[in-house]
Specification:
two-stranded antiparallel ribbon
């Protein structure tokens, strides 16, 4: 049976870009069902010439679309070593299974859009949810003509091959909830990790916390603007000098 890449005549760069994107946009548990759904979403956009693009590299790099790629350039998103070898193989095992992708495509109607768990309040009847309470939900299906084009591509996939090739528990055993991106040595930006990149489905969006340096700087500026005689760092040092025992590090975070 041909792979998904073969069915859609994907280049190696398109395949790499898709897998790297899916690894951070899809819920990684559930036997790979959400991975298949994000794959179907990408292929649906390709079929629809979404944004004037039919190349998956261009599609995953469209401005404001796939948050996982906001801080990555084309060379990085097409690099097969952006993920560990184990994770690349794990995601590609679903990506290359056209039966799973076909099912996700049919279940979602060739959805062009999806949102995460935090947006569940905006779900509507008929939206496709691969793993309730944990995965993305999918909406905005293709028009009938374009949707049929996708069905035609999947026509060579045997109907009796629609069972997932990966047992759900085995799939989770292969994923231990670790962030596995291997960032290129020349990359200095911040990599956005998908909200659902944990084996238990818990949202883990990176908190945008200030660094200690930034908090200290803010405290010093605020102290000066308020006309205070001593800044937080000075007060901490005075505590030590006066023998008051433990210093209070929360002073660094006073605003």
């Amino acid at each position: 049976m041909p792979t998904t890449s073969q069915l859609f005549n994907l280049t190696q760069q398109e395949r790499n870009a898709a897998i790297n994107t899916i690894a951070r946009e899809a819920y990684q548990g559930g036997g790979g069902k959400d991975i298949a759904a994000v794959t179907a979403n990408l292929l649906s956009r390709r079929l629809a010439n979404y944004g004037g693009n039919t190349n998956l590299v261009d599609i995953v790099k469209q401005p404001g679309q796939y948050e996982a790629n906001f801080h990555l350039n084309r060379d990085q998103i097409t690099n097969p070593k952006l993920l560990t070898e184990a994770d690349y193989k794990r995601v590609s095992a679903v990506f290359d299974n056209p039966a799973m992708i076909r099912d996700a495509y049919q279940n979602s109607g060739g959805a062009l859009s999806f949102r995460g768990v935090s947006a569940y309040g905006n779900r509507k009847q008929g939206d496709y949810v691969p793993v309730e309470g944990k995965s993305n939900f999918y909406f905005d299906p293709l028009d009938k003509q374009t949707y049929q084009k996708g069905l035609d591509v999947f026509a060579s996939v045997p109907e009796d091959s629609n069972k997932p090739i990966i047992n759900a528990q085995q799939f989770l055993d292969g994923y231990k909830g670790q962030t596995t991106q291997q960032i290129p040595s020349n990359y200095t930006g911040a990599l956005t990790i998908n909200n659902y990149y944990t084996g238990d489905g818990t949202e883990t969006q990176q908190s945008k916390t200030k660094s200690m340096t930034q908090n200290l700087l803010n405290s010093l500026v605020n102290a000066q603007s308020k006309g205070q005689m001593a800044d937080p760092l000075t007060l901490m040092m005075e505590q030590v000098i006066e023998g008051k025992g433990k210093i209070n590090p929360m002073m660094l975070y006073s605003m």
